[in-house]
Amino acid sequence: MAVAVGVTRAVERILAEPFPPVRRADAQRLSARAVLAEASGAVEEALGLHREAAASWTEFGHVFESAHARAGAGRCALALGADGNGDLVEARRLFVQLGATPHIVAVDELLGGSAAAGSDAGA
């Protein structure tokens, strides 16, 4: 992810482009705004945007992007000192469903490793 390495220009370009009025574009825009808000330190705003994006991606049926948005919401909640476990556990469940091992590991780190021991049995 570009923002993970501190490069936001690509995401900013996405937001500058006109979007057609379709659900997928709306979800992409929400995700891009969430990522930029989180990267700029506007964590409370990012939390809301990640949750909106997760709902939008879920409605659209894109499991991978929904999982990313849920993970982002969990990250932001934790950064604010709130309980992010609900979002993180759901993100993890979706990543397990997809077999996205690197993403499962990243979420497990945010969960403190507690999810790894008991959650894979049903996966």
Can you put this structure into words, describing what you see?
This protein has 123 residues and is mainly α. It has one domain (2-122). The chain has seven helices and no strands. The two termini are 26 Å apart. The relative contact order is 0.10.
Describe the secondary structure blueprint for this structure.
Blueprint: H1 9-16, H2 23-39, H3 43-60, H4 63-79, H5 85-98, H6 101-110, H7 114-119
Main attributes of the structure:
73% helix; single chain; 123 residues; globular
| CA gyration radius, whole angstroms | 14 Å
Global shape = globular
As a percent range, the share of strand residues is under 5%
**Low-pLDDT stretches:** none
Intertermini distance: 26 Å
Would you count the extended β strands for me? 0
Helix content: over 70%
Mean pLDDT across residues: 86
Write the H/E string, N to C. Answer: HHHHHHH
DSSP summary: helix tally:
7
Query: What about the largest sheet?
Result: none
Q: Total domains, how many?
A: 1
What structural class do you assign from the helix and strand content? mainly alpha
